[in-house]
Design goal:
Blueprint: E1 17-21, H1 25-36, E2 40-45, H2 48-54, E3 60-63, H3 69-74, E4 82-85, H4 91-104, E5 108-112, H5 116-125, E6 129-131, H6 133-145, E7 151-156, E8 159-165, H7 175-178, H8 180-184, E9 186-192, E10 199-200, E11 212-218, H9 219-226
Parallel strand pairs: 1-2, 1-4, 2-3, 4-5, 5-6
Antiparallel strand pairs: 7-8, 8-11, 9-10, 9-11
Helix pairs in contact: 4-5
Bound molecules: adenosine-5'-triphosphate.
């Protein structure tokens, strides 16, 4: 199936069928990655040119206005396992679409929020997964730009995982000696030396300056830990 016309019904075939609504940069990248992972993906956008441009990369892509309940029903959206609302700047379209998806009974609804207020409204509607890609990426890059970490991945509201380099202070010490968990409240999950591979950490793992460490813990404690070497 390719480049479906508005009104053509999409039948679900696999256990994880996902509809991505709004094919801007975020929605397109998400839909292509899901497709790469073998998922059944339907892309929806109201802009005919976007649909045309993506028709050779996304197997199923249709032009439709997701705020139109009849159009969603015609596409069989109610039969999908998950839906992602990837409309950001048009707040009204994002909220109306999310509300219709919940009303149609799509089991898992994900929606992108562009501000805290937008996120709060989506949560109040009952959207199960509200994501903040721009805000999260901003936070992540701030930690990298400040030199605290090589990468920063928020796992939950107050729990993060970072990739950071062992400072001079840790040189020649084992993890057991450094007692990171009791002294700093963080866990070193894995380490990597030079061009080697990541290896899971053991108490006897010895560190050298510049070793790359994957560290997990509450965000405040991980931030303080990463500042030890600055
Ligand atoms: P990006 O992912 O590029 O950052 P954005 O946050 O700027 O996107 P928008 O430009 O608001 O998000 O919307 C993304 C896509 O959603 C656009 O391609 C737009 O055509 C589409 N879109 C907006 N409203 C609707 C709608 N009612 N129905 C379907 N698609 C829509």
């Amino acid at each position: 199936m390719s480049n479906r016309k508005k009104g053509a019904s999409f039948k679900k075939h696999s256990a994880t069928s996902i509809v991505v609504i709004g094919l801007g940069r975020f929605g397109t990248s998400l839909a292509l990655e899901l497709l790469k992972g073998g998922r059944e993906v339907l892309g929806v956008d109201s802009d005919e040119r976007i649909v045309q441009n993506l028709s050779d990369r996304l197997t199923d892509v249709v032009q439709a206005d997701s705020t139109d309940e009849a159009a969603l029903r015609e596409l069989g959206i109610q039969d999908f396992d998950s839906a992602v609302v990837a409309i950001g700047s048009d707040l009204e379209a994002s909220i109306l679409t999310a509300s219709l998806l919940l009303q149609l009974g799509v089991p898992q609804v994900w929606a992108k929020a562009t501000s805290t207020a937008h996120g709060r409204i989506l949560q109040q509607l009952g959207v199960q997964h509200v994501i903040f890609p721009e805000m999260d990426m901003g936070k992540r890059v701030a930690h990298m730009v400040s030199g605290e970490s090589l990468d920063y991945v928020p796992i939950d509201e107050d729990f993060v995982m970072v990739r950071t380099e062992a400072p001079e202070l840790f040189n020649g010490k084992t993890l057991a000696e450094m007692r990171f968990r009791s002294n700093h409240g963080v866990i070193v999950v894995a380490t990597k030396r030079g061009n080697g591979e990541y290896v899971p950490s053991y108490p006897e793992t010895a560190l050298e300056t510049g070793d790359v460490m994957i560290v997990a813990g509450r965000s405040e404690q991980v931030d303080l830990f990463c500042q030890l070497g600055l």
